[in-house]
């Protein structure tokens, strides 16, 4: 590390960092692997949840399966959208200025990171409340918490 005293602050003994710029190249390989594993595992989870939903369609477990499906689908879209942007940025040597002069892609990436980061927390909270109602008020849950209501809650929450 090269350090030299700053001319204006030499009397105070404060050092100025003049380190040469050596940036490590991070391979796009890891982004592709994480994106692929996320997409494949979420696709498998969707298939399993769809099969279970067909079996328990009219029972009290259907609402939980719908909420779990919403959680998996938002996670899948998070991997698709955020992963595609990350791979695109890594493939272009992380030079945002070259392809994004107006900073729109960076803003979209930030919004997607926040949205797909908070969605699992919100859905997990809704799932916990739904299960709490199912355990503490089973008659209310079985009569009032229909699949139609859960679908409506999911669409309202994701809007």
Question: Which SSEs are present, and which pair or pack?
Answer:
Layout: E1 3-5, E2 15-17, H1 28-55, H2 61-91, H3 96-99, H4 104-136, H5 138-144, H6 147-157
Antiparallel strand pairs: 1-2
Helix pairs in contact: 1-2, 2-4, 2-6, 4-5
Overview of this protein structure:
- The chain has 159 residues and is mostly helical.
- 72% of the residues lie in helices and 4% in strands.
- The chain contains six helices and two strands.
- Strands 1-2 form a two-stranded antiparallel ribbon.
- Helix 1 (28-55) runs antiparallel to helix 2 and helix 2 packs antiparallel against helix 4.
Summarize the structure.
The protein is mainly alpha-helical and 159 residues long.
Radius of gyration: 24 Å
Count of DSSP helices? 6
Kindly report how far apart the N and C termini lie: 51 Å
What is the string of helix and strand elements?
A: EEHHHHHH
Instruction: Count all strands and give the number.
Output: 2
> Fraction of residues in helices?
over 70%
Low-confidence stretches: 1-6, 18-24
Strands of the largest sheet, in order across it?
1-2
